[in-house]
């Protein structure tokens, strides 16, 4: 529920969570996203769609943020398809939408793009993002450097953009790391909400599997670093497209638990 009658809440579509060890120590994907967005607990409504939760009509919200998930869009889960239909309706209603990783892919799927496993393979850990020509002039990225680091953890990707969508940034393995899908619809394959502890914990838990895939695990660990530019993007998005919603000055200091 909103903290004030002057604004509607921001919806967080909670689409899944990390491994139990990471969940216990670092929180849910919804918690991470709320803090990265600079939102107070009273400014958000979290709906656990992966447990068959259902959001209200798009008109009930100021904006919507879609979390990452361990699921794959190509699995075609019933809850995922229902969420995709809701996102189509939200886009038609003009609601500001920002999707992350699975949310990025689900949004593309909902709007007519195609998602599949990335032929270039897995991206995990900290990697550099390079702005493309469209990104150099995009208001979301105003003032950011042309290259900056971001946290990643994915195997699937958008292989065909939705009609009218444009890629704003790429990485070494993915040409669609940041995509504008509409006037107020954006999404990132990378994770603005992840701090360094998330990739460290993931690689510590799955390093042997990653080595079996041919990844340089020691190199991944040594390359983990802060990602302040990437971390600013969800706050930037809300400031641009839902300016009526108050943002906390420093979301990293807000560690209040949030039922999600």
Secondary-structure-based class equals alpha/beta
Note the main sheet: 9 strands, mixed
Strand element count:
11
Helix content: 25-40%
CATH architecture: 3-Layer(aba) Sandwich
Percent of residues in beta strands: 15-25%
Unreliable stretches (pLDDT < 50, length at least 5) are 251-260
In CATH, the topology is named Rossmann fold
Count of discrete structural domains: 1
* Arrangement of strands in the largest sheet: 2-1-3-4-11-10-9-6-7
Rounded to the nearest angstrom, the distance between the terminal CA atoms is: 14 Å
CATH superfamily: Class I glutamine amidotransferase (GATase) domain
> For the CA atoms, what is the radius of gyration?
17 Å
Summed up, the helix count is 9
Q: Please, what is the average pLDDT?
A: 94
Q: What is the quaternary state of this protein?
A: single chain
Short key terms for the protein model shown above:
11 strands; nine-stranded mixed β-sheet; Rossmann fold; alpha/beta; EC 6.3.5.2; disordered C terminus; 260 residues; GMP synthase; two-stranded antiparallel ribbon
Structural topology:
Layout lengths: L9 E5 L5 H7 L2 H9 L6 E5 L14 E4 L11 H15 L4 E4 L1 H9 L3 E4 L5 E9 L1 H4 L10 E8 L1 E5 L5 E5 L7 E5 L2 E4 L8 H16 L4 H7 L4 H4 L1 H9 L19
Parallel strand pairs: 1-2, 1-3, 3-4, 4-11
Antiparallel strand pairs: 5-8, 6-7, 6-9, 9-10, 10-11
Q: Would you kindly provide a written description of the structure presented here, covering whatever features stand out?
A:
By secondary structure, the protein is α/β, with parallel strands linked by helices. Helices cover 31% and strands 22% of the residues. The protein has a 9-stranded mixed β-sheet, sandwiched between helices. A two-stranded antiparallel sheet has the order 5-8. Strand 9 (166-170) and strand 10 form a beta hairpin. Helix 3 (78-92) packs across helix 4 (102-110).
């Amino acid at each position: 529920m909103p903290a004030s009658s002057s604004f509607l809440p921001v919806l967080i579509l909670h689409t899944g969570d990390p491994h139990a060890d990471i969940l216990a120590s670092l929180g849910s994907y919804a918690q991470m996203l709320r803090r990265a967005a600079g939102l107070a607990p009273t400014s958000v409504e979290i709906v656990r769609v992966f447990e068959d939760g259902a959001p209200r009509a798009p008109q009930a919200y100021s904006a919507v943020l879609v979390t990452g998930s361990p699921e794959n869009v190509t699995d075609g889960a019933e809850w995922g398809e229902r969420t995709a239909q809701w996102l189509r309706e939200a886009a038609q209603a003009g609601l500001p939408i920002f999707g992350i990783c699975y949310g990025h892919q689900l949004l593309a799927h909902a709007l007519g793009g195609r998602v599949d496993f990335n032929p270039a393979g897995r991206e995990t850990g900290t990697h550099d993002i390079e702005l493309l020509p469209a990104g150099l002039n995009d208001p979301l990225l105003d003032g950011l450097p042309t290259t900056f680091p971001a946290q990643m953890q994915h195997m699937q990707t958008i292989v065909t953009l939705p009609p009218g969508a444009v890629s704003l940034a790429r990485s070494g393995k993915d040409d669609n790391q940041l995509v504008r899908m509409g006037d107020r619809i954006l999404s990132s394959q990378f994770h603005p909400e992840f701090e360094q502890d998330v990739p460290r914990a993931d690689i510590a838990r799955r390093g042997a599997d990653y080595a079996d895939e041919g990844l340089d695990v020691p190199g991944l660990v040594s390359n983990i670093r802060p990602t302040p530019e990437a971390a600013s993007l969800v706050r930037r998005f809300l400031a641009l497209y839902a300016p009526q919603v108050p943002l906390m000055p420093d979301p990293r200091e807000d560690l209040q638990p949030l039922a999600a």
